[in-house]
Design goal:
11 strands; eleven-stranded mixed sheet; 11 helices; alpha/beta; 20% strand; Peroxisomal Thiolase, Chain A, domain 1; 2 domains
């Protein structure tokens, strides 16, 4: 199952909303809580509607709108998204209201907008799109599950253009909860020093990314998504390598064909060894890149990595901000993305130049 990436858009802690700029001036954060740099929503939403919408919903609508414009598609045949936590801010509002009001006189708005499929539903309402609409909530595999469904929908001939996205937000309350269980670093750290870190924990992030996956290549195409594979709790590094070999073999590729690898290195000394073992052994001849110092750690962060891969393949530019060591391959024809969340949910993506 394969598809072309014909449009992209991402809202992140970087200046990524403008599709013409590709990390030319990366934003350096000096704390462990990265928040998105949001655009003005006036051109995407009625101000009256926007006032009642949660931040993540507005980010999702804006990102999907730009993605569709970028692809030149007015109406997608399907909308498929992935979100590990949904609209967390509204969930918190509703739960707090239950406590404060002693379970009485509750307004339903926050509850209605707290469900995981709110973003994809609001996108459909804005577009008046009555086509297939689904949201996957599979923790660290949420975006990957959305991609799998999108590829199957295209392969079965049920859709030509699928709007596929991922969205997750960070809130102060959720940050504190995760901090207690060791998700985040105890010390503040500059994002570009993250790769040098030898302590446990990472930095918190968030984002909304959308891709227009199409059956056919066109003038807007960024790259070809060749395939992906998910691995749940692999026994060891050999199991990881075996899965990578299997995916590449299915696509008629080998390790030597991979010019660049994007790793989900997040500065957590407990889990980063998985990436470094692949970098130093299996892909020692490929250019090594990383991305979580730019967007932070969250369960659908692999969507940000796919945006980077698509942009590299289209522009044939590898930003200095993502390179580890030296850029070994020019031009770049095949990219592999390897990401894991807490060393539990592992995913592999393969993208190729159109």
């Amino acid at each position: 199952m394969e598809a072309y990436i014909n449009g992209v858009s991402v809202i992140s802690p970087q200046n990524t909303f403008n599709t013409t700029d590709f990390l030319s001036e990366p934003v350096v954060h000096t704390n462990n809580y990265l928040q998105c740099i949001e655009p003005s929503y006036k051109e995407f939403l009625n101000p009256t509607l926007a006032r009642r919408m949660a931040r993540l919903i507005k980010m999702g609508i804006a990102a999907s709108n730009i993605c569709m414009k970028d692809a030149g598609v007015e109406m997608p045949d399907a909308i498929i998204t992935g979100s590990a936590l949904g609209c967390l801010e509204d969930t918190e509002k509703f739960l707090l209201a239950i406590i404060e009001n002693q379970e009485q006189f509750l307004t339903p708005t926050s509850f209605i907008q707290s469900t995981h499929n709110t973003v994809s539903a609001q996108i459909a309402l804005q577009l008046k799109c009555m086509n297939y609409n689904f949201t996957y909530v599979h923790k660290g595999f949420s975006f990957e599950s959305a991609l799998q469904d999108s590829l199957m929908t295209i392969a079965e001939g049920e859709a030509k253009n699928v709007l596929t996205g991922a969205h997750d937000e960070m809130t102060p309350k959720y940050y504190r909860v995760c901090d207690r269980i060791g998700y985040w670093k105890k010390e503040d750290i500059s994002t570009f020093d993250l790769i040098k870190s030898k302590t446990s924990g990472s930095i918190a992030g968030e984002g909304a990314a959308f891709f227009m996956l199409g059956k056919e290549q066109n003038d807007h195409s960024y790259a070809k998504l060749r395939g992906l594979k998910t691995i749940y709790k692999p026994d060891n590094n050999k199991a990881v390598e075996q899965n990578i070999h299997e995916l590449l073999s299915e696509k008629g590729l080998s390790i030597k064909n991979i010019d660049l690898v994007i790793y989900g290195i997040n500065g957590d000394s407990r889990y980063d060894h998985v990436y470094y073992d692949l970098k130093d052994e299996l892909f020692k001849d490929a250019t090594a890149c990383y991305f979580k110092h730019l967007c932070g750690e969250y369960q659908t962060a692999s969507s940000f990595a796919m945006w980077i891969a698509a942009m590299i393949l289209k522009t044939q530019t590898v930003p200095d901000a993502v390179v580890i060591g030296e850029n070994k391959h020019k031009p770049v024809k095949n990219i592999l993305i390897y990401n894991t969340f807490l060393n539990i949910d592992h995913s592999v993506f393969v993208l190729s130049q159109c």
